[in-house]
UniProtKB/TrEMBL annotation:
The keyword Secreted does not apply. GO terms for molecular function: hydrolase activity. Keywords: Hydrolase, Metal-binding. It comes from Autumnicola patrickiae. This is Fumarylacetoacetate hydrolase family protein. Residues 2-196 form the Fumarylacetoacetase-like C-terminal domain.
Length: 204
């Protein structure tokens, strides 16, 4: 399986990092080795002094598709999840300043948290008006709603599939809202979709 991530999909987060609003979705990938193993803590890597959390709504692909039309995109997933795109922000800024790819800052081992619980799409009232949040040490640090996405989930699936064949089990990270910040040893992160907790991560 592959992990396809969307960057700059919330205006407030674009402003937060002083980035330009893109004309098209920004796409990057993480390897399967980036997935944080279940019930394992996240260890801050030695090569960064500024690792940030970025909570994101996830979509799990359930059939093979290429050049998917937006009107048919809803047929390609039936579960919604939540995760964290951990980012070595100091390393990312260094790479960006040189015009280099971000992989070392985004795709390192453990950099992709995929929540243990997936919610059936047919139990969600409105996929484009879904609340999600991240708590750090019991304090809410990120609050998001999918209605604020620049590109909605079905648009993303259609767009991504023009470049990459989507396969069963692939996961799309759909972007993060404002509120990203640094993690420190002994922090505890909890992710929620609406009022339901879907993951809990310890930082080491």
């Amino acid at each position: 399986m592959k992990i396809i991530c969307i960057g700059r999909n919330y205006t407030d987060h674009i402003s937060e990092l002083k980035n330009e609003k893109p004309e098209d979705p920004v796409i990057f990938q993480k390897p399967d080795t980036a997935i944080l193993l279940k019930k394992q803590p996240f260890f801050i890597p030695d090569f960064s002094n500024d690792v940030h959390y970025e909570v994101e709504v996830l979509v799990k692909i359930n059939r093979v598709g290429k050049h998917i039309q937006e009107k048919f995109a809803h047929k390609y997933y039936n579960e919604i999840g939540l995760g964290i795109d951990f980012t070595a922000r100091d390393l990312q800024q260094k790479l960006k300043s040189k015009g280099l790819p971000w992989e070392k800052a985004k795709a390192f081992d453990g950099a992709a948290v995929i929540g243990e619980k997936w919610l059936p799409k047919n139990e969600i009232k409105d996929i484009n008006n879904l609340n999600f949040s991240l708590l750090k040490n019991e304090k809410t640090v990120q609050n998001g709603n999918t209605s604020f996405m620049l590109w909605k989930i079905d648009e993303l699936i259609a767009y991504v599939s023009t470049f990459f064949t989507l396969k069963i089990g692939d996961v799309i990270f759909t972007g993060t809202p404002a509120g990203v910040g640094k993690v420190e040893p002994n922090d505890k992160l909890k992710g929620f979709i609406e009022d339901e907790q879907v993951f809990s991560i310890q930082i080491k």
